[in-house]
From TrEMBL:
An example Gene Ontology biological process: D-glucose transmembrane transport
Annotated compartments: Membrane
Family matches, as Pfam families: Sugar_tr
Protein name, as recorded: Sugar transporter
Gene3D superfamilies: MFS general substrate transporter like domains
Family membership noted in the UniProt record: Belongs to the major facilitator superfamily. Sugar transporter (TC 2.A.1.1) family.
Membrane-traversing stretches: 55-82, 102-122, 134-154, 190-212, 302-324, 339-360, 367-385, 405-428, 440-459, 471-490
Domain Major facilitator superfamily (MFS) profile: 57-494
Keywords attached to this entry: Membrane, Sugar transport, Transmembrane, Transmembrane helix, Transport
Highest rank taxon of the organism: Eukaryota
Annotated Gene Ontology cellular component terms: cytoplasm; membrane
Length: 506
């Protein structure tokens, strides 16, 4: 059974050694792969979760997502403060459009570079724990440089450095959480990380509101992440490396067992920990890089992981938010309330992310994805029809059409937050085989950032050539393609260990 047991120096207790039927036990489909407690076993309920240990192993990686959200939420407010001669406190406040674009986009450039580095080398070589510490270092350094920037060039350098932190954090956080979380709550925790990103966006909006009108308020806004970055660094130093990564690097199984017990906690059922450890030890620990991603056995998980993060961007998410303010104005809201619109949508995103967190491990990944993307498709199609009606000059129907557009935006945002928002990253964290997980997650992260960049870059051109309605129609077609792809390729993974997921896709 444990063909690699002697090699890694780990022998499970004979009374605990699982057989194949026990490892595949599904408990009526609710908890796939969890062993039932045996007489004289390690105690605890079959699904017992030690929330103190599990929570700590989740919280600190999730801070990496929070700091990404903070950057999204504060960029606009910081730029406004810099360009206001009354609050900038510098003589280079008059930024032209290209310079504004540089301030906004250089963090994305840093994230792209870090994602590529993580995929090629850093992730496999250092592991997700060290990578998160590296992210904390870049987050902190970038925040300090931005806050103290004496010139535009230094500010851009700080933005790029901060972006390196984003790239490493968004690569490592879903991997660390997926590899350390109990299978019964893995979906909840990785989805909750999306909640931290949205929460960071909301805090960024609030921070922009607080510094509005303050002299050099942008400095405090951009330097604030240095504090949570230090918390991230300290917190990760108290956590172990991923036990799966330790085995992959050829470390003793006893060390991996110690790491697994630390992240599971004292209340975890010992039988289940034994069974999971046995599966880890008996699995393939060969380290495969980018060159192995396109081997036949990796093609299906690679397609699933890359397709969901690609569809996340090309099904209209940037465009719906891009035009949201104009839709609200058409519905009768004052143009001065644009910031309020962003806050309202932000709170709604956070609320619906909570819905996904609550149901992802009970309802499953596929139902939430299929249902959410289905509603997104209908919503963006409604926006297309409404935009076409309003462009036709039908004055009589304008009021109703505008209200229907507002409802469609809320439906779209809500559906996105229970489907693509959290579940795309959940699948990225759990769908790839261990031997190529780091390279594959890095490739998916790079795909996400790059597609986001391209959509944002060409969205104005699409709108100019196709019109608002035509742009929405295009995104509705892409949503149908996404829905078909999910139906045909994405498996249900709730409750399964990472090794069971890997076996089912092989």
């Amino acid at each position: 059974m444990l063909r690699h047991g002697h090699r890694y120096g780990y022998q499970p207790r004979s009374s605990m050694e699982p057989n194949d039927s026990e490892l595949d036990e599904s408990d009526s489909g609710d908890r796939v792969g969890l062993l039932q407690p045996r007489p004289g076993g390690g105690g605890g309920r079959p699904d017992q979760v030690d929330w103190r240990a599990t929570g700590l192993a989740f919280l600190f990686p999730a801070i990496g997502g929070l700091l990404f959200g903070w950057d999204i939420g504060t960029t606009s407010g910081a730029l406004t403060s810099i360009m206001d001669p009354n609050t900038s406190g510098v003589d280079w406040y008059a930024l032209d459009s290209f310079q504004q674009g540089m301030v906004v986009s250089t963090s994305l450039a840093g994230a792209l570079l870090a994602s590529a580095a993580a995929a090629v080398k850093v992730g496999d070589e250092f592991g997700s724990k060290t990578e998160l510490q590296l992210a904390a270092l870049f987050y902190g350094a970038g925040a300090i440089v931005q806050g103290l920037a004496p010139s535009l060039g230094v500010l851009i350098m700080g933005r790029f450095t901060y972006g390196l932190g984003i790239g490493f954090a968004m690569h490592a956080a879903p991997m660390y959480i997926a590899e350390t979380a109990p299978p019964s709550v893995r979906g909840l925790l990785i989805s909750l990380k999306e909640g931290f990103i949205v929460g960071g966006i909301m805090l960024g909006y609030l921070g922009s509101y607080v510094i509005f009108g303050q002299d050099e308020g942008w400095r405090s806004l951009l330097s604030t992440p240095a504090v949570p970055a230090a918390v991230l660094m300290l917190g990760m130093s108290r956590l172990p490396d991923s036990p799966r990564w330790l085995l992959q690097r050829g470390r003793p199984a006893s060390e991996a067992r110690e790491a697994l017990e630390q992240v599971r906690g004292k209340k975890a059922n010992r039988d289940i920990v034994d069974a999971e450890m046995a599966r880890m030890v008996s699995s393939d620990h060969h380290v495969g890089g980018i060159n192995e991603l396109f081997r036949r056995e990796n093609l299906r998980p690679l397609y699933i992981g890359i397709s969901v993060v690609l569809f996340q961007q090309i099904t209209g998410q940037p465009s719906v938010l891009y035009y949201a303010e104009q839709v609200f104005i058409n519905a009768g809201y004052d143009p001065a309330d644009g910031a309020g619109v962003a806050v309202i949508l932000g709170f709604f995103k956070l609320l619906m992310t909570g819905v996904a967190v609550a149901f992802v491990d009970s309802a499953g990944r596929r139902p939430l994805l299929l249902g959410g993307v289905g509603i997104m498709t209908l919503s963006v199609l409604t926006l297309a029809v409404c935009s076409e009606t309003m462009a036709s000059g039908d004055v009589a129907g304008t009021s109703f059409t505008a209200r229907a557009s507002v409802a469609a935006i809320f439906a779209y945002v809500g559906a996105y937050q229970v489907s693509f928002g959290p579940i795309a990253w959940l699948l990225v964290g759990e769908i790839f085989p261990q031997r190529v997980r780091s390279a594959a997650v890095g490739t998916a992260t790079l795909t996400n950032f790059f597609s986001n960049f391209l959509v944002s870059l060409y969205l104005p051109t699409l709108n100019e050539n196709l019109g608002t309605a035509g742009t929405y129609y295009l995104f509705s077609v892409m949503s149908v393609v996404a829905l078909s792809s999910i139906y045909l390729t994405v498996p249900e993974t709730k409750g399964k260990t990472l090794e069971e997921i890997e076996e089912s896709l092989r």
